[in-house]
Amino acid sequence: KNEVEQSPQNLTAQEGEFITINCSYSVGISALHWLQQHPGGGIVSLFMLSSGKKKHGRLIATINIQEKHSSLHITASHPRDSAVYICAVWDTGNQFYFGTGTSLTVIP
Amino acid sequence: KAGVTQTPRYLIKTRGQQVTLSCSPISGHRSVSWYQQTPGQGLQFLFEYFSETQRNKGNFPGRFSGRQFSNSRSEMNVSTLELGDSALYLCASSLWQGSEETQYFGPGTRLLVL
Question: B4 in contact with A at a CB cutoff of 8 Å?
Fold first, then answer.
């Protein structure tokens, strides 16, 4: 049983395309995180959300608490956006669950 | 400010041995979390420490333990190593600004158990 599901698992896009990565979860949560992991293994925290929408540069994250769903959007994608994007949630029992990640490749 | 540092970066052990990994958080960060990443299971939460107290714990056996010191540095110990403990172990320190948390991840310690 996976508490956090991401789709798609793999995504290839042309440079400049608009990208959407989806995350659905089955538990009650206090917060949701989006993380970015580069091929070397380094992880960067992108967003923490508990409601609504956040924007940072070309990245936009939204969350719908009622539908237990979050999306990460990348506008005007660039090859440097190529990475694995991971959704993670803190449930209300203080357990932290991770999705399996979406591997994004942006082709020049 | 220096980032999160983890030592050692690579480690090879044999089954049955024990190992201690170290994590130094960003200066001023009081929360340190540990994670295990494997190709099969992905990322999994081990535990979180705040001000020397374990605040949250994931679903790992008691062979996995940790502690945090008064300077916020944290150590993780795995006793009686098994082959399945081979993984990348990541720690992250957290900055809380109001109700917003930002985690800063270290580069990880890659452990191979033979």
Answer: no
Tell me the pLDDT tens digit for each residue of A54-97. 999 999 999 999 999 999 999 999 999 999 999 999 998 888 99
Nearest by CB: B100 against A42, A48, A94: A48
Cβ separation A31–B107 shorter than 8 A: no
Distance from CA of B43 to the nearest CA of A (A): 6
Residue of A nearest to B97 (CA): A48
Token code pair at residue B56: 């949250």
Low-confidence ranges of chain B (pLDDT < 70): 1
Average pLDDT, chain B: 94
What separation in angstroms does the CA of A101 have from each of A3, A20, B41, B62?
Answer: 13, 13, 11, 28
Q: Pick the closest to residue B28 from B55, B4, B57 (CA basis).
A: B4
Report yes or no: B39 at the A interface, CB cutoff 8 Å.
no
CA proximity to A43, closest of A34, A53, A31: A34
Among candidate residues B95, B85, B91, the one with its CA nearest the CA of residue B105:
B91
Nearest of A42, A17, A34, A11 to residue A104 by alpha carbon: A11
